[in-house]
Amino acid sequence: MTAQIHSFPPSPAITVETLPLAARFSLRLRPEHREEAKAALGLPLPDRIGRTATEGARRALCLGPDEWQIDAPEAEADAIRRALPRGLAHALVEVTDREVTFRLQGPAVLDLLAVGIARDVSRMEVGRGTRTVFDGVQAVLVREAEDRFTLAVWRSFSPHVEELLQRGAREIALGL
Amino acid sequence: MLLIHCPYCDETLPEPEFTYAGEAHVARPADPMALSDEEWRDFLFVRSNPRGTHYERWRHINGCGRFFNAIRDTVTDKFAMTYRAGEPRPNLDALKEAAE
Amino acid sequence: MTQAFRIPGAGRVDHAKPVRFTFDGKTVEGREGDTVASALLANGIHLLGRSFKYHRPRGIVSAGSEEPNALVGTSRGPGRSEPNTRATMQEVWDGLTVESQNRWPGLDFDVGAINDRFGRFLPAGFYYKTFMWPRSFWDKVYEPFIRRAAGLGRSPTEPDPDHYASRHLHCDVLVVGSGPAGLAAALSAGRSGAQTVLVDEHAEMGGTLLSEPGVRIDGQGAWGWLDAALAELRGLPNVRLMTRTTAIGYYHQNMVGLCQKLTDHMAAPPEGAPRERLWRVRAGQVVLAQGAIEKPLVFDGNDRPGVMLAGAARTFLHRFGVKVGHRAVVVTSHDSAWHAAFDLARAGVAVAAVVDVRPEVSRVLTGQAEALGIEVLTGHTVTGTTGRLRVASVRVNPVRGGRVGAGRTIACDALLMCGGWTPSLHLFSHTKGSLAWDAGAGAFLPDRKTEECEIAGAGRGLWGIAAALDDGAKAGAAAAKAMGRVAGVGTFAVEADRTGDGVVVKELPTDRNAGLAKAFIDFQNDVTAKDIRLAVREGMRSIEHVKRYTTNGMATDQGKLSNINGLMIAADALGKEAPQVGLTTFRPPYTPTTFGALAGYHKGSHFEVTRRTPIDAWAEAQGAVFEPVALWRRAWYFPQFGEDMHAAVARECRAVRTQVGMFDASTLGKIEVVGPDAAAFLERMYTNPWARLQPGRCRYGLLLGEDGFIRDDGVIGRLADDKFHVTTTTGGAARVLNMMEDYLQTEWPDLDVWLTSTTEQWAVVALQGPNARTVLEPLVEGLDLSDAAFPHMAVAECTVAGFPARLFRVSFTGELGFEVNVPARHGLALWEAIWAAGQPHGITAYGTETMHILRAEKGFILVGQDTDGTVTPGDAGLDWAIGKQKKDFVGKRSLQRPDIVAKGRKQLVGLLTEDPKVVLEEGAQIVADPNQPLPMTMIGHVTSSYWSEAMGRSIAMALIEGGRDRMGEVLHIPMPGRTLRATVAAANFVDPDGLRLKV
């Protein structure tokens, strides 16, 4: 079963789509081993929480002092699984199937996020990401562009989140 | 909904991103089996429960995931400061004097 | 009706747009822009309802959200009715249904009005005094009586079909109130570039300016200036204006709750539009520009319809083009009401007199009054009113040297009162900001602040539009500067500003028996001056006690009109000054707020998260019945061919014990524990030994709290030297991960190990029963499933049905069992593949009920059902799970605490009823001697109890004092009507030697 891409509702202010699954890993290691990991992965690991780094189609998002989310095309998953040497103390755990990722886009995207997120998302710079809460559900939010975000939540929470995104998008379309 | 400064993210963020985790600076004894019943009881159950300045722990559970320490006034709910886990207990009076 | 009291062309309503609504079934015509109150007044209707306690006729007192009297029921269809809507705030629209409240059979003739005649039998503290005894009367007589009498308006009986929304909002400066002070503040802040939000509870912005069109600002009329100011604010991209939006509460760190009414003013709201939205605003700075609320005067008959606040009359005149009567009398202790009298006189209302309690009033005012033909009665009091359903006359008396002279009666159809103004500081009080009595202003003013806020204008006791504009401009600039902006302070040239002052009074002096006066303080709760004095006489000293004894200020208006008058009279009765008596505390919400707005999106299917597994859709298609487990919904049982629950569960149990069953175990918590110190970490967390567990093997893990009590359990598989697959209970997953992170981060940060939740990475299908291997074997690649190669408690990575899998040989049923983990996206496909492969072997899907029974037949505990946070491994019979050689693990020290090693602790044992057909109730209490007197000594309780299909009888588990020493003992379970007998037994009912696992 693969996730379907669908959009709703037709509104110039907002589109919401569910992204197809790509490889996603949680990488944990001590910050002093970042350089070693970078060399092995061919991907820099940002040293500040909330920063992202990309190399080719791979992206690393620093979520905590010793935690990075690695996103990559499915075709590169095996290479990533094998990249880090056994001698390097780390944990690389695949979480591709754990999550559903929505992409939200449009001029009213900040209003839509404000339906569920208490933090001030407008202060988030493009290219940054963070773990946060959307309507009580833990989520990872990444700002891809001024008016484009991705919001990833655990699989079983996604219908709840999707329903609220849909409600919020409708409100915005109504202009209320 | 309080605003809490995460000393790891260096950001002040809304309370739903955090969970409370009890009094701070209550370290687990290195060798619990060496403790008397009374010492172990105190470690397990006895807390300061002050009216006023409270050293306490929070976790940025919906953020960077880190446990950290905070100084909060239990009367006003105002935070004096937050600091990383493992750092020594700050002397609040000295900090206040320095600020004045 | 004819709108006989409407002044053509006057006010801000749209005279070209008539609006028709019904009031108690009669059609009433108003204008677009009217409130229900202004439209009714335009038609000469003052009588809107009956009062709460005495059922006295009541009308409109104010023109704003402080209204205590004019509460009506409004409706737009089934489920869309609302009681206690303030007629002064509800806008009219075509088709709106309005009903008066608290009257039967009708508004004009009301049976409950008898209470008014017997009013002296309903004094303050009536409930406390009357319903004390006899005690037996409480349930049957008093409470039903109170319940019938209590409450105002009718609650809707249907579910509310409306949607409610919520949103977060962040800004630099939030300005509450859009009168002159708020507008000037918003202009200062907005021009500085600060992110500014200006909110007002009314349908349009302007506040006092809407009621003061004669004032000129910067050379323009007030309304022209207002239009220009609003146009400028609308043109600023950093400013957001929100009308119909009430700041309901002011919370920590400048969070303000706003309730925005989105559709209540619309005749045809858009389909699916939310009715209200709750905004949670986080502001850098807050400017409170909420103005002031006019005080009523306290005199006999001050509640009659037609008696209203003078400022309200001015608002109805100027904003809505409505005269509140043909012939008015004004009674006041403040200059502002004189201006109301002048405005009404100029609009053609016959103003018979201005009665001022002050002996001396400015010659400017009296001169103007005389020029307009208004009789001036300074140094006078009002001692009564007449009129059955509407004021018909007022009795006025001179006061000389404290003596009330002879009264005379003046005919009128409107009596306009003004006792001065109270700064509206409710939101400021929410912050625990303190108030200080200002004798000059005759009011409590803001003192010590606890939040980053400014109070501007009348809230600080500054009267007049010029003062409000200047103060607002300064407050807005200060707020913007505090947010790092460069802000200028605008100046305003104001002409024809009408300021003034007044005196603070208690109840007006009278020549009549004050004990018989109905001089109301709290109109909504029917509290009179006499009630306050009685409370003090009966020993109430604290204003908080006076409030609760009399219920003054405890109605839905929270005493916006009554608190200060109540305080003044209480202070007088106590012989103290007002500041020594102090105010009661205002609390959120500022005005009544719907539960819908507070609930927001969280109703119906969105009430809380419902987590579903990847296999949930299959279960639903099969007609499964679901049960909630933590936030998950899990398939409880799968009824077939019209089976009831008992039949379905018995069939599922038989299938697992005789053939094979499959079960969706995806909700089990899973944590990947990875790193060189993974085994060392688990050694410290769990009671069991892990260091020597070989990769490819699993073990039952038991997790305690530091207090020694069982917190969680689950099977843990070692996949590699440095990698463990930990499972937790469904409900415990998040808690266990948090607990592990706590120890890892704060106690043992030196360990090189990391924890990742993989609960949702994997879908899990459990296959249990003698045919389990037969079904599974053909689907598995890369693994020999024979008992020799893959024995009980083995784990391996392999391929199942073509999907990468982690395969566990585990059993929570006592049967040969496997648990197949595959990436969640393949969960449904795996399930369907096993389902198909199992068809020749009698495969049966089973739910959580069968799972619970099968494990109970083996005596396996369910954490949270057989344990309750006070059960140790010893209590649960799990001593075998403790690593005896381990020096330490979480909770180990506590297992030697005196009360844990003490004799007689409750222990988990089996219980078999004497009558095998009786299934005990879970939670039932157990006693040793059924004949002892009440209260009996309870020695334990039933934790799990089921019909066991395998045993052909009921089985139960119970926590019983010294249970393991009572094997064979008969105990008693008292139930309503009978006492059951049961024998203590080992909690391992089926295959006690575990032979069925070794196949």
Distance between the amino and carboxyl termini of chain C: 91 Å
Please give the largest β-sheet of chain A: 6 strands, antiparallel
Oligomer: heterotrimer
CATH homolog superfamily of the largest domain in chain C:
FAD/NAD(P)-binding domain
Please count the helical segments of chain A. 4
The number of distinct structural domains of chain A comes to: 2
Q: Tell me roughly what share of residues is in helical segments of chain A.
A: 10-25%
CATH superfamily of the largest domain in chain A: Probable tRNA modification gtpase trme, domain 1
CATH topology of the largest domain in chain A: Gyrase A, domain 2
Q: Return Rg of chain A in Å.
A: 17 Å
Number of discrete helical segments of chain C = 24
Structural class of chain A, please?
Answer: alpha+beta
User: Which CATH class of the largest domain in chain A is shown?
Assistant: Alpha Beta
Shape of chain A: elongated
Q: Give start-end ranges of low-pLDDT stretches of chain C.
A: none
Structural class computed from helices and strand pairing of chain C: alpha+beta
Largest interface: A-C, 44 and 45 residues
